[in-house]
Amino acid sequence: MRSWTRGVVTAGITAVSALGIFVSQATAVTPVGSWKGNTYSASDIAGSHAWGDSYVSGSRVYVTGQVRDTLSDGHGACLNIRAWYSDSVIPRDEFVADTDGNNSSYTPFTFTFDAGTVEYVDIQECLTESGDVWDEAPGWQAIVSP
Q1: H and E: helices and strands count for the chain
Q2: pTM of this prediction?
Q3: CA distances from 29 to 36, 96, 122, 123 (A)
Q4: How many other C-beta atoms lie within 10 A of the C-beta of residue 26?
Q5: What are 79-120's pLDDT values in tens digits?
Q6: Backbone angles phi, psi at 24, to 5 degrees
Q7: CB atoms within 10 A of CB 47
Q8: In this structure, how many other beta carbons lie within 10 angstroms of the beta carbon of residue 133?
């Protein structure tokens, strides 16, 4: 074999091997399954209660749940959902609100995320007024992580 062809073959094998290593290192996420905004945790705020499920199906990560307004205080309940992806420094933010007050109803939701690139999905309970976040819990709770 000529020396230049041996170099081309070696370079090709190296490139295929590197691609195999890259593909095999894709992040596998682990949803927590059933979740709720933990009472007395950093992701909890009085007047809002959120609960649901997180799971992987096919190539998607599903986050489903409900938000309930638990106080008749003039503020609706809401939930901030933040997804972080391996291929972006900007997170995807979602917002769900229930404004019926004092446990009278709840608002269901479902969001899906790409299982190949999502790294984390976090939740944060909040309160809403006129469609905007009025107050929010001081921290976040991971419901999907590597």
Answers
A1: 1, 10
A2: 0.78
A3: 19, 23, 13, 16
A4: 10
A5: 999 999 999 999 999 999 998 777 777 899 999 999 999 999
A6: -70, -15
A7: 23
A8: 14
Length of the chain: 146
Instruction: Work out the average pLDDT over 21-34.
Output: 66
Q: How many CB atoms lie within 10 A of CB 135?
A: 15
Contacts of 101 (CB under 8 A, 6+ apart): 69, 71, 72, 76
Specify the DSSP class assigned to residue 74: S
In single-letter form, the type of residue at position 2 comes to: R
Q: How far is CA 67 from the centre of its chain?
A: 16
The structure tokens 């209660």 sit at 49
Token pair 């609706």 is found at: 76
- Beta pairing, strands 118-129 & 132-136: antiparallel
Does residue 48 contact residue 129 with C-beta atoms inside 8 Å? no
How many Cα atoms occupy the beta-carbon half-sphere of 134 within 13 Å?
17
